[in-house]
Design brief:
By secondary structure, this protein is an alpha/beta fold. 39% of the residues lie in helices and 13% in strands. It is built from seven helices and six strands, in the order H-E-H-E-H-E-H-H-H-E-E-E-H. It has helices at 2-9, 26-32, 56-60, 79-90, 94-99, 103-109, 153-181; strands at residues 15-17, 35-38, 66-68, 126-129, 140-145, 148-152. The strands form two sheets. A three-stranded parallel beta sheet has the order 1-2-3. Helix 3 (56-60) links the parallel strand 2 (35-38) and strand 3 (66-68). It is elongated and about 85 Å long. The termini are far apart. 24% of the residues are buried.
């Protein structure tokens, strides 16, 4: 219906969001020239998406750009493993799965000239893992944003004891402040 409205009024839809059952209209989405952004396995969590959505990415990629997304603050932290599920259960290639969480979202947002792939002239926003990046077992080793080191696991691990000691010191100080602020009771009152 939205595609018909867009066609009637002469505008293009860049990306359909939450296309849990986009595979049912994949040809129409592709014919319109839109991309699709979906969840990997959010099926049957309510009545509407009652069929497995891990089949959505491969069936929606009929000549179009598909990405993974999440409305969940925790799940969005590991969309790389969600893309891995599309490989395992949806039959997409490794390159296609990786693009679902790197280049394809950048294309859908119209910022692929700056981010989404490792190329000369693009922002150096990189995550370096210790294992295969689409694995559940992969741990982030380094994060670079605009070419600057933002996170280093080795530095994080060696600094944990100092941060814990500083945290405890602040908690102790807060406890002392609270005790001082409590009204003193007079004996016999």
């Amino acid at each position: 219906m939205l595609i018909r409205v867009a066609d009637d009024y002469g505008f293009k839809i860049r990306t359909f969001q939450h296309v849990l059952e986009g595979y049912k209209v994949a040809r129409e989405i592709a014919a319109h020239g839109a991309g699709a952004s979906t969840f990997s396995d959010w099926f049957a969590f309510k009545v509407r998406p009652s069929t497995p959505s891990h089949t959505t990415p491969p069936s929606c990629r009929i000549r179009r750009v598909v990405s993974m997304n999440s409305d969940d603050a925790e799940l969005m932290r590991h969309l790389n493993t969600e893309a891995g599920k599309a490989m395992r259960y949806g039959g997409v290639s490794e390159t296609e799965a990786l693009a679902m969480v790197t280049l394809n979202p950048a294309k859908q947002l119209g910022i692929d000239n700056r981010v989404g792939s490792i190329e000369t002239g693009k922002d150096a926003d990189l995550v370096i893992y210790d294992k295969y990046p689409l694995s559940d077992f992969a741990k982030v080793q380094k994060v670079l944003i605009d070419g600057n080191l933002y996170f280093d696991r080795d530095q994080d691990v060696t600094g944990r004891a100092a941060r814990q000691a500083e945290k405890q010191k602040l908690l102790d100080k807060e406890k002392q402040n609270q005790q001082r602020q409590q009204p003193q009771r007079r004996p016999g009152a």
